[in-house]
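To: structure desk
From: M.T.
Subject: fold request, one chain
Message: Could you run this one when you get a chance? Sequence is below, nothing fancy, just the single chain.
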Amino acid sequence: MVSNFRGGTTLSKHTTLSGFLLPSIHSAPPFFTQQPNPTTEAIVVQQWSRLILAYARHRKLFTLRVEDAEIVGSEWDEILRNDRINRRLLPPHLEFILTDMVTKNTAVYEPPRQTRSVLLYWRQPEEWAEVLHDWASTTGQLNTILTFYDIIEPPVSSPLSGIPMVILRKAISILTKTNRAQVIAVADGEGVRFLAGNSGK
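Reply: Done. Structure tokens follow.
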């Protein structure tokens, strides 16, 4: 139990239907509104950013749109709403939070040249590069040419299943710079060959 950041009643954590443990601050009504005090708002935005990334990792979600704050029953409902206190995060506040996340490189606007939809970096591209190379190594696919589709939709589910193409390309680009991957043209587009290489660490 912790105190409300406005000094009100005590709050408790709550587990959602998907098994995600919401922090106690999620039960504080002020958490869902933009605060007039810049210092307080900075704390709120930081807490929201952490919550969004943790939940995205829990549910393996990659995209968050401003519109998700308005859609009842969306995959983000568990954190963008709290029916127990009759509160929800409003679209302008979510857009402000997403802007801050992009500034801090924990998200990137996708598609580019708009500010209402982001790709979330609950793993940085450098981390995805390591996950990608480890997967190729442990599944015995070093020196094998794989299509990007083989990686995104493997026959056996993997940590890379469903990874957005934008993140996959960034991860592969990182591996090519350390001589651990080669991009190769294949009949139906692009492929990649993973090499033992050197992590450069």
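Reply (cont.): The first strand starts at residue 2 and ends at 3. Let me know if you need anything else for the meeting.
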